Amino acid sequence: MSAAEWRKAMNAGAGQYAWTTGARARTAARPSPRPSPLGREGEVSVPADWARWVGRRVGVRHVLVLVVVLAYPWVATPFFTFQIGAQALALGLIALSLTLLAGYGGMVSLAQMTVAGIAGYMYAIFATSGTDISLRWPWGLAVALALVIATVCATLIGWFSVRTEGIYTIMITLSIGVAFYYLAQQNYSLFNGFQGFQSVMTPAVRGVELRAPIPFYYLTLFWALAGYFFVAYLLRAPFGVALQGIRDNPRRMSALGFNVTAHRVAAYAVAGFIAAIGGVLMVWYNGLVSPGSVGTSWLINILIISVLGGMRHPIGPFVGAIVFVLLQNFAVDLVGRERFNLLIGAVFLVIVLFSSDGLLGWWGSARRYLHARLEPARLAGRRRA
Amino acid sequence: MSRFWRWFWGVVIGLPAAAFVAWGLADNPKLFLTTGMNGLTLAALYFLVASGFTLVFGLMRNVNLAHGSIYLLGAYVGYVVGDRTGSWLVAVAAGFASAALFGLVLQVAVFRFMHGEDLRQTMVTIGLSIMMADILLWIFGGEIYQFDPPRAIFGRTPLPIVQVYPTYRLVLLLMSAAIGVLLWWFLNRTRVGMMIRAGVDDRGMLAASGVNVQFVFAVTFAIGAGLAGFAGVVGGTALSIAPGEDTRYQLASLVVVIVGGMGSVVGAAIGAILIGVAEQYGLAYAPTYSVVFTFVIMALVLAFRPQGILGRRA
Prior knowledge:
The complex is a heterodimer.
Chain A: H1 3-11, H2 21-29, H3 37-42, H4 47-57, H5 60-75, H6 78-105, H7 112-126, H8 139-161, H9 167-186, E1 204-205, E2 208-209, H10 213-236, H11 238-248, H12 250-255, H13 260-286, H14 296-309, H15 316-334, H16 340-354, H17 358-384
Antiparallel strand pairs in A: 1-2
Chain B: H1 3-27, H2 29-60, H3 67-85, H4 88-109, H5 118-140, E1 156-159, E2 163-166, H6 167-189, H7 191-201, H8 203-208, H9 213-238, H10 245-260, H11 265-285, H12 290-304
Antiparallel strand pairs in B: 1-2
C-alpha cells in the first residue's frame, strides 16, 4: 500500500479499531462508528456494483496467472508438478508469513521456519509415522493440534522478540530458531533426536492419495491462494493498515492510541498460523521431519526466498520460491550439486546489493523504464493522428 | 528497581544456584570443578569471538552474521600456515592477520557504501556467510583438522581436587584474560580507542568533531574480525576445526552479546562466562536439555533487561 493510500485509510477512521482495551471501550461507547475503508468498499448490494468492484480489482494478468497455475499440472510432468510446483507453493506460503512480518510489520523474524517445523513435528508426533513416539491419532485431529500448537509457539516467540527492534529482532529470532534446532537434535523422548520422524503418513481423502502429484499440487495451490488472498485482505483491513503504520513510525502510532506491542504480537500469531499451514504441507511433501528441516540453512533459506522475490507485495515470496526451487533443482547443471549454496548465496548477494526490493523491484523499475520510453512515443503517435 | 525486588530476584535466582553448587560439591567435587573449569575455558573462547562481534555492532550497528565464517576462515588459514611453517605461533598470527585483512576489505569495499542501512548490511553478511561456508567446504572438504601446538603448552597440569587438567586450556584462559585487558587498554587509553568509544555513543557527533569516521570504522572492523580469526586458531587448537563450527560460534556470539548487552566489551565477558558455564554444566548434568539452559538465561535477561546486562538503550 502506498503512503498516500495509507494516509487516506488512516484518516478514514481505521484508528477506531485499535487493539488497546481502552480504544475498544471508546469505540463501543460511540453510538455509530464510521465504517472502515474496507467496510465501505465491501458494502455491495447491487449486482452491477459487485461486477464493477470485481472489474476494478481484477486485471487481465490476474486471470492469466490463475489460468496458468490451474492448468499447470495438466501440461507439466509429475516431476515438475510435485517437486517444482508444489514445493515452491508450500515454501512460498512459509515465506509469505515472513513477508507479512518483515515487509509490512518491519520485524524480520528468522524463526518462521521454526514455527513451520514445530507444526511439522507436532503433526508427526500426533499422526502416524514410522517411529514409535507417534500417537497414531486421526490425521484431522493431528493437523488441528499441530496448527494450534505452532500458532501458540509463534505467539510466544513474537511476545518474546517484540521486546527488541530492528536488527535486534533478527538476532533474537535466529537464536530462538537455532535453539529449537539443537533441542530437536538432542531430545530423543519427544523429537526423536537426530533422526527425527521418518515416513510420516500422508492422509488419503475418499480414496485420493493426497501425496500423489496432482492432488498434492492442488492442495498446496489452494492453501497458497488462500494465504495470498488472506494477506492481501489483511493488509487493507484496519489491522493491516495499523501494522504498516507501526512499521513506519511506532512512536507516533503509540501516541495515536494504538497498542504497538499487541499489534506486533498479533502479527506474529497470524504469520505463525500461515507458516504452520506451510509446515504441515512441507511434512506431507517430504514425508519426514528432522532437525535438518529446521536447521540454520533453512531458517536463512526462508529469508532468501522472501528477499529474492521482494517484500512489498504478497506475491513476492511465491516468485522467490519458484526461483529458489528452480535453482535448487537445476543447480546441478550449472555448478554441480555440491555448490548449490555458493550459487544461492551469490544470487542472494547480488539481489541484496543491486535491487531495492528483490525481483519485484527489478520488475517495477523495468516497467517504469519501459513506460518512460514508450509513453512519449505513444503521445507523439496520437498527436500525429 | 526497588530494594525489595532486587532482594526478591537475588533470592529467586541465587538460592537454586547456591543449592546446585552445594549439591554438586557434596556429590562429586571432581566432576563439579572440572565442569566449572571447562565452562570457563569455553567462556574464554566465547569471549574472544563475541568481543569482536560486539565491538563492530556497537560502533557500526552492523550485525555481522558472517562473524562465524571469519572465525572459520582464520582457523583454516592458520592451519595452512602452521602446516607449512611448523610453528604454532606463526599460525596464530596468520589467523589474526588474514581475518583482520578480510574484515578490512569488507568494510572498505562493501559496508562503507551502505552506511546506515542496518538491515541491508545484515542481509549482505548473511549472503557472505553462506558463500564463505561453501567455499571453505569446497577447499578444505569435510575433514576435521587439528593443530599441533608447542609441547610446552600441550601437556597436563596437576591441580588440587581436579587432579589433572589440560595445560592448553589453562593457557587459553590466560590468553583470553590478556586479550581482555589489552582490549580494555586499547579502548580506554589510546586515541583510536577513545574515538571508538565516542562513536559507540554518538556517531554523528564524532564525525562532526572532525574525526575521520571511515578510518575508525575500518580499524574497528579489522580488530573485530582479527579477534575472530585469532579465536579460530586458538579455539581450533583446544577443540578442532570442521565445517559447521561457523554456525556454532555465530550463535554463541549472538547469545553472549544479547545476554551481555550489545556494544559492551565487559558485557561480552559477563555474557560469555554465564553462557559458557551454563552450557558445560548443562552438558554434564542434563545432556538432553543443555541448550535449554542457554535459552532460559537469554529469556530471563530479555524479560527483565531487554538491552542486556550491561547494554544501554539504543
